[in-house]
Amino acid sequence: MNYRVAVIGAGPSGLYAAAALLTSGDPVSIEVLDRLPAPYGLVRYGVAPDHVKMKSVIRVLQKPFDPADVEFLGGVRIGEGGIPLDELRTHFHAIVHATGSSLDRDLGVPGEELAGSYGSGEFVSWYCGHPDFTGLDPALDHPGVAVVGAGNVALDVARVLAKSAEEMAATDVPGPVLDALRSSAVRDVHVLIRRGPQHVRFTPAELRQIGDLADAQVVVHDDGLLAAGVDEPEDRRQKQNLGMLTEWVDRPVGDAPRRIHLRFLRSPVRLLGDGRVSGIVVERTAIDASGRVVGTGEEETLDVGLVVRAIGYAGEPIPGLPFDEATGTVPNEGGRVVADGVPVPGAYVTGWIKRGPTGVIGTNKGDAQETVAALLADLPSLPAPAHPEPDALRAALAAHGVRPVDWTSWLRLDAEEVRRGGLRGAERVKVAELAEMLDAAHGASAP
Ligand SMILES: Cc1cc2nc3c(=O)[nH]c(=O)nc-3n(C[C@H](O)[C@H](O)[C@H](O)COP(=O)(O)OP(=O)(O)OC[C@H]3O[C@@H](n4cnc5c(N)ncnc54)[C@H](O)[C@@H]3O)c2cc1C
Questions:
Q1: Strand residues in 143-194 grouped as ranges (E)
Q2: What is the ipTM, given to two decimal places?
Q3: Is 352 annotated as ligand-binding?
Q4: Which CATH number fits domain 106-309: 2.30.300.10, 3.90.960.10, 3.90.550.60, 3.50.50.60?
Q5: In this prediction, what percent of the chain has a pLDDT beyond 70?
Q6: CATH architecture of the domain with residue range 3-102+313-404
Q7: Residue ranges of the domains in the chain?
Q8: Which N-terminal residues, if any, form the signal peptide (predicted)?
């Protein structure tokens, strides 16, 4: 009998783990479960819709499913509101948790709870067509938007809001999202960055993209820092970014329909509004002799109707597993889950839930290989599960009222999205409503 291994999460780390298990040559049968009917995690619901090349990594990620060597069970949530982890354990020798980091970190400033204030996780999920966020419906009826953060996600959000509807129509954004962007009143997107232009660690290609938009201009607000001269950074990326920013700072402000303002040395203090965001108060910051960001006490107010904070993510605790609240990850040693320093038999982690929300998609490959190496070393000593037969899992899911989306069903949904794309001149248009996704996946055979 093969060892049975479940991978929870069909994002990059889970799929790299499935591939590593498959190519190990060890006698394992692998099932990948995801709470959504569609695979690929943040490649589908995080990577910006206009980053089409980046999404082509899907061709690599889908390989384990192609000859049906690995089973996909979409629409199966494990843990709270789904199949209890303890029950899943009775079907597998080992479980790899690859559930990512889906929770937005807060700024911790007053007014954050107002309508019109979003974490980038929810805002990005909305424009990427994640079924949990179709109802977000952010009001794009005010000319000003603030995006808080100095990473690539902040630039993604700013770019999507600044692009023309024609540019976005060529992407996979769902119809209702495109309609919202088409009727958007947004004119000025203010990116609020606590540090100076010499410190930002955007990927230079991402920064360059906002300088190349058809209908938007970048305006650099640096309080004269660049003209006065800043120390040349040693980091290659920072150096390239500084070169671009130095070039842009002298550009006259033209009459482009939209502007992306890069506001350096600004930190949010509070959001204003009566029920809904109507402004944001920022404090000017400075960098002290030890390189720390310090407030100057000098405040400014920006007129905005929407605030998106792109300041990082944290993992969601998995009931039944230890969790480190400070890092938002599951404690582990090389992928083996540990409780009080002792390995939890048969429990493994990979990806963002293992190491936190850092690195690019490819980083998850080596990370997953490390976890799988630990798992394979442990397999012979792991106790056999009570219900190892594949049919027993199907029966258990049915008993919970869950009809999984298998790989063939996902391919039906995939084909429907490609068909919708053809109607709009795009490669695909996402189906976002859960019921519609399931209808398309299960097709005529739906009960
Ligand atoms: C907005 C954004 C943009 C990004 N853009 C880029 C980019 O352009 N280039 C790049 O290289 N990297 C990018 N990244 C980083 C990249 O997406 C991550 O490195 C990668 O997705 C992490 O993989 P993961 O498998 O750990 O998590 P995820 O991709 O989040 O996958 C986790 C999966 O687990 C599933 N899941 C969660 N909970 C459960 C549960 N209880 N039961 C069952 N299933 C569950 C989820 O549905 C999801 O499919 C971006 C990240 C973000 C947030």
A1: 144-148, 188-193
A2: 0.99
A3: yes
A4: 3.50.50.60
A5: 99
A6: 3-Layer(aba) Sandwich (3.40)
A7: 3-102+313-404, 106-309
A8: none
